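Class prep. Sample record?

___
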Amino acid sequence: METRQRFADKIDWGLLFLLMLFFIVSAMGISSAQTSGQYGTNFVIRQAFWYVVGGIIIGAALFLDSDQYKRLAWYIYGAGIFLLVLLLISPESIAPHRNGAKSWFMLGPLGSIQPSEFMKTFLILALARVITNHHELNPRKTVQTDFQLLIKIGLTTLLPLAFIMQQPDLGTSLVILAIMTGIILVSGITWKLIVPIYASIGVLGAGILSLVIWAPQLLEKYLNVKPYQFGRIYAWLDPYNYAKLEGFHLINSLNAIGSGQIFGKGYSDREVYIPENHTDFIFSVIGEEYGFIGASVVISLYFLLIYHLTKTALDTKEPFNAYVCAGIISMITFHVFQNIGMTIQLLPITGIPLPFISYGGSSLMGNMLALGLVFSMRFHHKTYMFSSEDS
């Protein structure tokens, strides 16, 4: 017999509390960061506005349960593809090039919106449905059925990836690949297929990186790639030789985080200037002002978030929900690892924001939409009297 739950009992208060902590950290970081630039806008107020909009998105997400999301997955995915196509064919007055990429729709006073940020969550829904339907149709697993599933996952991912690369947006493209990889790892596909494929990709990537470093002339000769196009790679490996160009942000980021030491310099007591530090380099601001302690608190918040999402995935009885959680975990984990990694020279610099902390409406709304799915899972979770969990 199903038991009734009060509305308050259906809300994931733990996840809501984590979001409140992220907002506090975001507001403090952005408030300080914006004082170092010639900005005419109060980004804290805007970030608070986007958090409110994100809260509305989460509330709207509660109206649908997992069965409805599963049925609508392809329609949602199709809508995302339509927006990506529309973006590419729209005139400059609607979708201008910014920083060399055509990734945003301009919405007048509301600013801009980036469809690819929402496409990440749309893709997670589509991949979760692909895997769930495949397992329902193929209850008996074989290497052949696993290979078929791998092809389905690859094709579903390739379509949005191709349009995002056309913008071009390397950072979001990497996130898309990370989502696909994370979902593949939990999809039940045999390791006999996964290991050779990803080992080959790893060897290929290492080979390309080697050519970029030691033999760029070969890439220029045979692939018509110019050495300057790999400036970020060179600046990552040796930033001080590119101190006035691609290495400028990285050097200042290292100086900022290093100078923060254990306890930091205190709120608004920064000395290192990093352009646009309220967006991609917000972690550098936190590291300088609050030191190792403050940076550790931020990283701990992400550990708690990932733990919470993992627990939700393990608690759910719906395979579709588990795959959705896996995709969201992969997306957020890659965002955090890449963003923090690039500020400390662990990884090359890409335009990937720090989830829930960096300023940005599209990024925040996209992540809130993803968490809205998790809130929905808890909200519509059914409990039964005399279930095995209670015995």
